[in-house]
Specification:
mainly alpha; two-stranded antiparallel sheet; 412 residues
């Protein structure tokens, strides 16, 4: 692809890149079939169906999830048969949105190398150990948190209507999950360093949404968050970081399977080395990288302090397993780790550079084996929709969804 400038894409090439990245995201789903996923149907579609706009005020898991609630309300404009497709496309838009911003001209000065931005975008799309956050509205909040981070650190557009859109997007992102709590220190730091009207506005928006989410979280946490014991230990901590971030984030499912019993031992070497590499990168990298590392670290710590891995069993041992059902907690830490390796490939000394490039090469070589996500069957959704349409008013109909075991009931 021919690039006009060293750090900018033409409008046509920009559109082509977004299209190609979108296709890659879609292709990771082995069935290419839109289905409701977990809370998509059970909470967000059902909530919109039963409560309409009022569902926007209903917290889930301890905080507001505005984006998912909005998706549910929007989907009511279509026949229920097409609601999973609507959710699917909305989730795709959310997943592509960080790439759309990173590749835009607003990052031309902040990250001047277009090749670097393209490669980071590619890693974002192919990242291992991330099946839980792919193409579902329930976990779109994790992609939106990355979008919010990028909006906070990048310059504002000059057009007033784009400034308004940015503010609206920041509000929606801030009220969709707890991430504004972790982004508030970054917004405050940006305000302290730059002291402009735009950084002030961003800081006010992010901190305000964080305050709202914190109030709701503190009031509902005991009733909505798991109270199961953590089962925390140093050994478990090392295995969680190794299996799901530092080693698993490079090798993926195929690589960790090949290593087998050696994985646990490897983690004792790899985790300390990774932490040292991150420390080196922090000392040699621009502010935006250090801010992203802080964001990833805050998310990781929060996920370990109050995870939702089980309602009854000790939780840290469950988080040790590569590809565990809570791998959403590891998406951003893995991206921070891969970004570290990319930076050190060019800014480290010769030994660190070669080592970092070797790990990236291993990830890329194993990617064909890690590309496809988990394959699920198709719930008999169409047949259930026909049953629902033919049912008498007041009849309750059960809709099955993925992953297996999830379902929801709608009253006609």
């Amino acid at each position: 692809m021919k690039i006009q400038n060293t750090n900018s894409l033409s409008t046509g090439h920009y559109a082509i890149c977004l299209f190609l990245f979108s296709v890659l995201i879609l292709l990771r789903n082995p069935t290419l079939h839109p289905d409701f996923w977990a809370e998509d149907g059970a909470f967000f579609y059902k909530g919109a169906y039963e409560f309409g706009l009022h569902s926007l005020l209903i917290p889930e898991n301890g905080y507001l999830q505005t984006f998912a609630r909005m998706a549910g309300i929007f989907s009511l404009g279509f026949d229920i048969l097409y609601a999973p497709l609507v959710f699917y496309l909305i989730a795709l838009a959310a997943q592509v949105s960080p790439i759309a911003l990173l590749l835009s001209r607003r990052f031309d000065r902040l990250v001047p190398s277009l090749k670097l931005r393209l490669f980071i975008s590619f890693c974002y799309v192919i990242v291992p150990n991330s099946w839980e956050v792919n193409l579902n509205v329930t976990n779109a909040q994790w992609h939106l948190s990355i979008l919010a981070f990028l909006l906070i650190v990048c310059p504002e557009p000059k057009q007033v209507f784009l400034k308004v859109i940015n503010s609206v997007v920041l509000i929606i992102c801030g009220l969709s999950g707890p991430f504004s709590v972790f982004l508030s220190p970054i917004a405050a730091y940006e305000l302290y360093e730059k002291r402009t009207g735009e950084t002030l506005r961003k800081a006010i928006l992010v901190c305000s949404t964080a305050a709202i989410q914190l109030i709701i979280l503190l009031r509902t946490m005991e009733a909505t968050r798991s109270t199961a014991p953590l089962g925390a230990s140093v050994e478990s901590f090392i295995q969680i970081l190794g299996n799901n971030v530092f080693t698993g984030g490079i090798l993926g499912g195929s690589g960790t399977t090949m290593i087998g019993a050696w994985l646990s031992t490897l983690n004792y070497c790899h985790v300390p080395v990774a932490i040292i590499l991150i420390t080196v990168a922090i000392s040699r990298s621009p502010v935006i990288y250090r801010e992203f590392i802080f964001f990833a670290f805050a998310i990781m710590i929060a996920g370990l302090i109050k995870p939702q891995a089980s309602l009854t069993e000790p939780q840290w041992p469950l988080l040790e397993v590569f590809g565990a059902s809570c791998n959403r907690y590891f998406l951003i830490p893995i991206l921070a780790w891969l970004t570290t390796l990319i930076i050190l490939s060019f800014k480290g000394n010769k030994a660190i550079s070669y080592f970092s490039r070797s790990l990236i090469a291993v990830m890329l070589l194993l990617q064909p084996y890690n590309f496809l996500y988990v394959k699920y069957g198709h719930p008999d959704f169409r047949e259930t929709v026909i049953e629902f349409h033919n049912a008498k008013p007041g009849t309750e109909v059960i809709f099955q969804e993925n992953p297996p075991g999830w379902s929801f009931v709608l009253k006609k």
